[in-house]
Amino acid sequence: MSLYTRLEQRLERNSDDAGPVAGELSLLRIGMIWLAANLVVTTLLTGTLFVPGVDYGLAILLIIVGTLVGALVLVSIGNIGTRTGLPTMALTRGPFGTRGSLLPVSANVIILMGWSWVQAMLAGIALDFLVASVTGVSMPVLWAVVCQTIVVILAIFGHEGIARIEPWLAAVMLAIMAVIFITAFTTFTPAEFQAIPVDESIGYTPILVLDVVIATAISWTVLSADFNRFAKSSRAGIIGSGVGYSLSTIISMSLGATAISYVVLSGGEAIPFDPVTIVEPFGWPLAVVIFISVMATNTMVVYGMVTSVVNAIPGTRVKFLPTALILGLISIIGATFFGLLNQFTTFLVLIGALFAPVFAIMIADYYIIKRGAYTPEILSARGGRYWYLAGVNWAAIGSWAAGAVAVYVWTYVWPTPIGATIPAFALTFALYLLLAWRERSKHLQLESRHLTDVAAEPAPNA
């Protein structure tokens, strides 16, 4: 038996293919997975965008508030995964329809692929800094490819491999991050950090900072049900992911804001979203954090891409291993396109435009329209409750389009005083409820009829 066949059979036994799963991971294990997930270079470097655009103390406050707001969306979607056993994109069949769900699934794969490329590039730059400081030879593209290859190998082992490595990676990263924070605040006082002059020419306002932090949570929500479906209870999933995500985001972004502030106080040039800028003053500890964080997080990202494709169409047998290999190869090739790093803020806006409305619709549909339950018909390839009109729920599609346009308009055309993500989420949520309320009434009628039929059945011992 070949190595490929043995690996494929192992993945089959561990239920990484399509269909619901029975969760068994504890609150602590879920928490550690999410803690490691967002102790990541992209989140850390996002923190470098904020200072000195806003003052240091305000940046930290906005990071905390935005993270907690975004976490509400993340845990709400993750809990649907825990209760149904289905990954995030499979759940989009509920509101969008069996065929309509292919639109958010396709967008999700594209977005996750972009995340994967960006993180591999940043890991390659950090690793190249370490190697070049010893050998004098700089080859960031090569190291990006090496990092992404390791990620693909880890992702092939699915949720089982991730659950094993994430807690250890989280512990190592937290320890090194603590050293970096200590270095920063023993070199300069908190008052000196707070006294850094605000540079309004950078273009970051407090509202924009808040919007970017919330958009970061939205970007992670695409994976929330993928991993929370393995939680053994709703309590484990909600508390584990909520605490793990919030802590990791606050720590990572705050470290980024602190590191760039350290560069400013040291008299260096504060180049935002540049790993070398913050690695140079701290040396190998920060470079190691960046490398390990990509191993932890990008593994989840690649796994999420594969899960989305495997679960895209119910009733089809798309195998996990060949899908992982194909998408993994694309992710390795794409990691060489370093020009994408210059478009990261635009990339975050794109994520918000595409997925804040999607999650507003999913939350409204599951918790209000469908009253907290999806029937087994969600696994049907054709027909049934989630077929809607030829497989598409146009109420969801229309609401999504309106929300996505709103994010773009409120970001670039008519900026609002509260950013774009929150108002677009609220608009989409309200619009979908309005368009789908008749579906809720129909659901109540079906429930009532079912209860009447059950009551009319003779007792077992009659």
TrEMBL record:
It is found in: Membrane. The chain crosses the membrane at residues 32-51, 57-80, 101-118, 130-156, 168-189, 201-223, 243-264, 284-306, 318-341, 347-368, 388-411, 417-437. Signal peptide: none annotated. InterPro entries: CodB, Pur-cyt_permease, Pur-cyt_permease_Fcy2/21/22. It comes from the Bacteria. The keyword Transmembrane applies. It is a multi-pass membrane protein. Keywords: Membrane, Transmembrane, Transmembrane helix, Transport. Belongs to the purine-cytosine permease (2.A.39) family. This is Hydroxymethylpyrimidine transporter CytX. The gene is cytX.
